[in-house]
Amino acid sequence: MKLFLDTANVKQVAEVAAWGVLDGVTTNPSLVMKEGKDFKETVLEMCKHVPSVSAQVTATDFEGMRKQGEEYASWNKNVVVKVPMTTEGLKTLKHFKSKGIRTNTTLVFSPAQAILAAKAGATIISPFIGRLDDIGEDGMNLIAEIMEIWRNYNFETEVLVASTRHPRHIVDAARLGAHICTVPYDVFAKLPKHSLTDIGLKKFMDDWAKVQGK
Ligand code: E4P
Questions:
Q1: Which protein residues touch ligand 1 with a CB less than 6 Å away?
Q2: Whose CA is nearest to atom 2 of ligand 1?
Q3: Residue nearest ligand 1's atom 1 by CA
Q4: Shortest-distance Cα residue to atom 8 of ligand 1
Q5: Alpha-carbon gap, residue 54 to 63, rounded angstroms
Q6: Which of 11, 82, 99, 202 is the catalytic position?
Q7: Which of 12, 39, 72, 80 is most exposed, with the fewest beta carbons within 10 Å of its own?
Q8: How far apart are alpha carbons 33 and 29 in whole angstroms?
Q9: pTM (two decimals)
């Protein structure tokens, strides 16, 4: 499973990329607003670290999304154009597929939306599981349904599990065979940790110090 960082913070991307486990980055307008940095510079910096950086269009009509997306794609070959799951978005996905521009369909909340985005030629679809959990639904069940559908057909579209909130989301997504998980920095930072690792390492170090002291 590929792991992406869900952030608009370049330092976080550089740090996790240095661990050797980072495959891409997803950004969105809210994350960009939080950082308050220039969008193009941010995306270009991130493209130095990973081969896939999702940059979201902010127009909502086909023509606006086409223009914006083509501009983003011209910045760097690592840019993936992020398009919302609407009927205008579907037209945009189809257009970019014919141009060989990679896309990520955002705000997917149902299996029907997933099927349409795949048929329109999305490179990636992003079902948001945390936001479904937030309204009392089972976000991971959406991933299970989508992966079941994907096994019945030959969709090339990769399923990216978005809106993850804790490490268990990443493990459950992997067990279901999802292709990608995008993870916020605070959750990513928890993934390498285990209290028994810390306790075990401390004991090894203490015992080694005793050996040295002899
Ligand atoms: C995905 O591409 C989105 O940026 C993200 O996962 C949204 O997550 P949120 O529900 O935590 O805002």
A1: 6, 26, 28, 106, 126, 128, 130-131, 162-163, 182
A2: 26
A3: 162
A4: 163
A5: 19
A6: 82
A7: 39
A8: 6
A9: 0.96
CA nearest to 146, candidates 116, 184, 170: 116
Maximum Cα interatomic distance, the chain, rounded to a whole number of Å: 76
Tell me the domains of the chain and their CATH numbers.
2-213 (3.20.20.70)
pLDDT of residue 214: 73
Give the pLDDT means over successive 10-residue stretches in the chain (214 positions): 98 98 97 96 98 98 98 98 98 98 98 98 98 98 98 95 98 98 98 98 97 86
Handedness of CA 169, 155, 29, 35 (dihedral sign): positive
3 state DSSP class of 126: strand
**Amino acid present at 185:** Y
The pLDDT assigned to 100 comes to 98
